[in-house]
Amino acid sequence: MDELKVFTGNAHPTLAREICDYLGMPLGKADVFEFSNENIFVRILENVRQQDVFVVQPICSPVNKSLVELLIMIDAFRRASAGRVTAVIPYYAYGRTDKKDQPRVPITARLIADLITTAGANRLLTVDLHAPQIQGFFTIPVDELSAFSILSQYFKEKTLSNLAVVATDIGISKRARDVAASLGSPLAIIEKRRLGNTDTTETTNIIGEVQGMRILIVDDEIDTAGSLIGAANSLMERGATEIYSCCIHPVFSGLALQKIASSPIKEVVVVDTIPVTNDKKLDKITVLPIASLIGEAIHRIHTGLSIGAMFE
After folding, report:
1. How many domains does one find in the chain?
2. Which of 11, 87, 124, 244 is 20 to 30 Å from 141 by CA-CA measure?
3. How would you class 73 by CB atoms within 10 Å of its CB: exposed for 0-12, middle for 13-18, buried for 19 or more?
4. pLDDT given at position 191
5. Are 159 and 106 members of one domain?
6. Which of 29, 30, 311 is nearest to 175 (CA)?
7. How many CB atoms are located within 10 Å of the residue 202 CB?
8. Are residues 141 and 66 part of one domain?
9. Rounded to whole angstroms, how far apart are CA atoms 10 and 8?
10. pLDDT of 163-213, one tens digit each?
11. Does pTM top 0.85 for this prediction?
12. Is 29 a catalytic residue?
């Protein structure tokens, strides 16, 4: 593998260009488009024989189109005799379908892993999976980065006094605990339950002290913002004085932006694993760049250096 090359589909080309800027190299050339019959066409426009290829493509809206683009690109690189193909997936969709929690349902997160591997990927580079066990769905090496350090540093520089970190549910509590430790703040946890197979949740309890405190709500993604707004309202009812929120993946589907705009939350801080287009950039929303984190990981994978050392 003589040379490093980075390519992108149509899901987040801005991020791919910023990664290449960090690496000091041009973005690889490829045609990736959809015919009028909705079939996707891919053609690699430069030689990749025995090269170390990285394909940047979060599985974001339109989710299924982004996924199929990724699979076809991986297949194209494999057939073009690339030395190694790494799928760089900053946002791994279907991550919430990671187990059989009801009768006769699929484990779609595992299915996606099988598709990526079958297409010809040799390894995966991703950011903050919804469930850590998804790593085990792959038979190829997986490097999972965490961007919570980026969010923690942002709030550390704000020097908010009397701050408590709140996890939106039990599942995110370990990562929220790490954020709380880095900020020197206490941790509280919200107990919630999901109402059927919908995006609606209900807050049942808050474990920890929040009265009279500033609050930082921590989650891995904001989808419809139902959990976030429910948590914020419950915290205000319990006597919180000011509420901030942070997450890794800004999905912002449905009426999420309208809910955030009319909520008591002062600021929502995210990283750009998913493109936040101009129509989604509310005054309340702050977007932090992740290109340097992914770029450094790509450099380390290519040169055989440790990824874990980035977080020590």
Report:
1. 2
2. 11
3. buried
4. 87
5. no
6. 311
7. 13
8. yes
9. 7
10. 999 999 888 999 999 999 999 999 999 987 666 665 666 666 899 999 999
11. yes
12. no
